[in-house]
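@channel sequence for tomorrow's demo:
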Amino acid sequence: MTQETKSKKNEVHWRNTIFMTTTLAGTLVGLPLFLWHYGNQVTLWAYAVLFVGMFIFSGLSITLGYHRLFAHMAFKAKWPVRLATLIGGATALEDSALHWCSDHRRHHKFVDHDEDDPYSISRGFFHAHIGWILYKEKVYPPLDNVKDLMKDPMVVWQHKYWLQIGVILGFGLPALIGYFIDGGLGAVAGLLIGGMARLVGVQHCTFFINSLCHCIGKQPYSSDHTARDSWIMALFTFGEGYHNYHHEFQYDYRNGVKAWQFDPTKWTVWVLSKLSMVQDLRRVPKEKIMLAEIKQKQKLLLEKLAKGTLPVCEKARALFSDAGRKLTDAARTWESAKHEYGRALKKQLDLTVEQVDEIHARFDQAVADLRAAIQEWNDAHMKLEGQLA
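structure tokens (generated this afternoon):
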């Protein structure tokens, strides 16, 4: 990269900076002052409902629409869902779906790379959180990684009018609702609470996924990148906090895959599928998820063994090695059987019904063998880990 290009990257994007500074100041200073002086003259509970409603509309449109639907194609959606999330996403004022998805796809492709990852944490917390927007290049990178989205007329339409939609619905609508509730003061309350404070909340929750979830949290699936799972952030981002999982399995429509994990976006997609509004939900097989967890556990255990600070029973080590070999063989057989079964289901093979049933039986047996190997590996891992505790 040339010095001239680097200097362009570091130029202040004044429109973004002024707008985000103004909305933040309005939320942290303007709103408290308004409530101090006029809070007893407006119907506060109504504006609390307005805030929550607008927050859900904006935030869920980003997570379900911009992120999982458009950026990752984790499922397919009918036009009402696509239109609603494109409009709702615009009210978050995080750019058009095209630009948002292009940035996000580059983030996944070049995660943690200084120059190619738009919001790389390797350039610091501030850069990953908001600095990349305040110092954003005025000339957008080419949209060659979203050619699929450019074929969607709705996405192209939203790309052209996202700013007008975002301002009118994101600020004008809550002000109008406030006016009908409490007149002129209500319009100001609606603008400050449902418009400005809601916008700041949605934006910074999104930004914390790029910053905080690359710094703090657990890495149960992989430590080859900085992404981390944070159940706390999941509470404020409609389930996006399970970021380590997402970076390992980005095309899964779920982020929180465990039964106890909070992922309202996943639940909303599931409900929409039952209403026939979305289809073709993409899911990572449970076995593949378990194998990723095992790979990470094994990596951490081998790091402990390499230190050699504690004596380890050779029998336990041998059992662990043997379990690892069995698991590798079982995983290889399962992958082969899964591939063959998938081709049979898609009728890519010229087979009789009996042959399909035989392939199905082999696949079921491969799944059973893999799960047995996983259990054996977990038992051996537990014994060896216990000696290193």
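heads up for whoever presents: The first strand starts at residue 76 and ends at 77.
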